[in-house]
């Protein structure tokens, strides 16, 4: 083949036509459909990607993220496994409703239109999804099972209501996970996130702490150490003692939890969560304005940012003293950002 021939062929290449040809071919072959035959002798492997939000079309960030699950699924396909690799859309919540309002359309129409747009883009990505296992979380056939599961947890006393601090987006009018807050702003709309108290549902994960920790043992050496450590920290099981500190000027003592009660003799100061009702109760008039200015800044941080070991710890003096219960020494009471109001007792002693 001459250089002229190569140039001529290149000028005739139509990537769209080639893409459509092979997409039709893959659709006809349906090569990634998982078998549900119980007699299938192949090892079974389940690969689950996080479902995308149907807020618009996909972008290169999606292509990068879903390439990981695609590579894993294809790896096990090539090893002869019966791989289940489903796809779905996280299609519930106020963000979709608010987007529909901004676009002057019905939320259901907006959501399903975006789902179809994203599905077409996923097919162009050629991701190894089993399209027969496609779902949307807004479908009754899906959420009936989340409701069923919730009722089982509630019946067993594992679901309960309580007040707690959340990341709140004032534009989307919804709660955000810590991972959805980027530099103090909503990852979806860019609005400044605020911390507020809401009554919400909780699950008693701590009831299963021992079992969860025990079930991690078989993963040693198979999962990265940093991931196992992260999971153990998330489970949050601790052994220690509760200690009561008397605060000067307050009738009831304040309880702290410590894993090292032997260090009580060395306690040098006492800390409460800056954005807790306890801090507002304890602060003296002389320091009240300083605390409120500090709390305004603290509420812009996520829990992850507040507990990061890579940032300097900050705090303000509340103008009171606590009494060390083992030696009677007076130690100053501070409010700080690294103590969370809804974790433990919301107060700690520091050595």
Poorly predicted segments: none
* Cα-based radius of gyration, to the nearest Å: 27 Å
CATH topology grouping of the largest domain = Rossmann fold
Mean model confidence by pLDDT = 90
Number of domains: 3
- Which of globular, elongated, flat, extended, rod-shaped describes the shape? elongated
Spatial strand order of the main sheet: 11-10-13-14-12-15
CATH class of the largest domain: Alpha Beta
The N- to C-terminal Cα distance equals: 79 Å
Question: What does this 3D model show about the protein?
Answer:
Helix content is 37%, strand content 22%. A hairpin with a 2-residue loop joins strand 7 and strand 8. It is built from 11 helices and 15 strands. The mean pLDDT is 90. It has 3 domains: 125 residues, HUPs (Rossmann fold, 3-Layer(aba) Sandwich); 93 residues, Methionyl-trna Synthetase, domain 2 (Beta Complex), CATH 2.170.220.10; 104 residues, Isoleucyl-tRNA Synthetase, domain 2 (Alpha-Beta Complex), CATH 3.90.740. It starts with a helix and ends with a strand. It has 351 residues and is α+β, with helices and mostly antiparallel strands.
Q: What is the secondary structure topology, with strand pairs?
A:
Layout: H1 3-12, H2 15-29, E1 44-46, H3 60-78, E2 82-84, E3 87-89, H4 94-102, H5 107-125, E4 134-136, H6 140-155, E5 159-169, E6 174-176, E7 181-182, E8 185-186, E9 194-203, H7 209-214, H8 225-235, E10 241-247, E11 254-258, E12 269-273, H9 277-282, H10 285-298, H11 303-306, E13 315-323, E14 330-336, E15 347-350
Parallel strand pairs: 1-2, 3-4, 12-14
Antiparallel strand pairs: 5-6, 5-9, 7-8, 10-11, 10-13, 12-15, 13-14
Helix pairs in contact: 4-5
